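Same chain as my last thread, 470 residues:
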Amino acid sequence: MTRNGQRLLLLIDAEPAQRRLVSALAARAGWRSIFAGDGETGVATLGTQDGMQLDAILLDHGSPDDDATATIAALRERRPALPILMLTANGSVAAAVGAMRAGATDFLVKPLAPERLLAALEAAVAGTAAGELRPLTEKIPALLGFDEIVGSSPDFRTALAIAAKAARARMPVLIEGESGVGKEVVAEAIHAASPRAKKPMVTVNCRAIPANLVESELFGHECGAFTGAFERKIGRLSHADGGSLFLDEVGEMPLDAQAKLLRVLQLGEIHPVGARHGQQVDVRVIAATNKNLADEVEAGRFREDLYLRLNVVPVTIPPLRDRAGDIPALTRHLLARIAQQPGLMALGITDDALTLLCDYDWPGNVRQLQNALFRAAVLCDGAALTKADFPQIASLGARRHATTSAAMAGGVTLFRPDGNMRPLEDIEADVIRLAIGHYRGRMTEVARRLGIGRSTLYRKLGELGIDNAA
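reply #2:
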């Protein structure tokens, strides 16, 4: 850290414009940057006085021909404990595997969102998992249908059942939940189960777009509509015509854009910036937020009329800490998907590692779990992940107060908050939901494992008001 209290970043990048952008972003959080135009100069910088005070290194992997792994290895040899982040326009799993095995701490993908850079820098310095593998791990292929989403806790299956019913309709859906719980996965499942499945699903992260560009991105603009509009731009809503538009972090949308979005929901009409006339679009809007939009309405940051339009079908995804019983199955599922990536292999996981994962409270939810598993899989030399492969999780300690056996069992809640037993009918409904989730909706298997006939199972579904998607 520099004498005035600023943290010091070594930015290795051959492009002056990119250096200016990154240094300006880092300066927002109190970082001062020094520069090196190539890897050799960057390695040499570590021997200078400034280099001795460095807090982190950001290496821009400029082209596929760059030997970034060699540079990372040389940097790591000089400074074993210094966080090294790699920035690339490639974003492939293979590139990340090579970078991390060479010693990179984290991996970011262009275009670089300000909050991701700052979160990665702060987390790297703090020695915690940044969650910045998200642009990478989200490239793990294959959209999941509702019957493929892993999770058997009653609240989670109830949320999926609501989403599955809503998928068949045209009405908007509002998915609420903490960051990382899997809101986009549920949105994709809604689109895949809808009559619009053959049309595109267009995703917009409202937080990642500068406020003055949101309207242009969503609705498009005409040539000359504003300074710098040198050509006509087709907006995301037009690209989603006939399909679905997923508005992630919709609570970050500026009020002006909210008014125009309301018009889309009311009339199915968009009005590009600078256009004389509107145009009709047929788009199903799925929105997600990690905020309480009712509170945002009360504070005047979100339009009440838009909130009422979006909140026709609310779907609340519980945090991973509230469904710890899903962690073993979810871990194995994620490891199977990770194993399909170039340069990685199928891995098992030991009981002590599962115990560690189940005892942790996962503030970053499923996304953090996936990132931790990916990192461990990349660096693992054996055939199975052990507790030693999760040093960052182990160092943070077991935060859960529930017993491990209860967490791994995925049990059903027997008691009310007041200490009294829940009604038998409610417990039975939860057991059936858990079984349907555990056996992925295979009703014959559900009936067999519960020791009842299929006709009895379907009768109970009707009596208890359980949708078989639950």
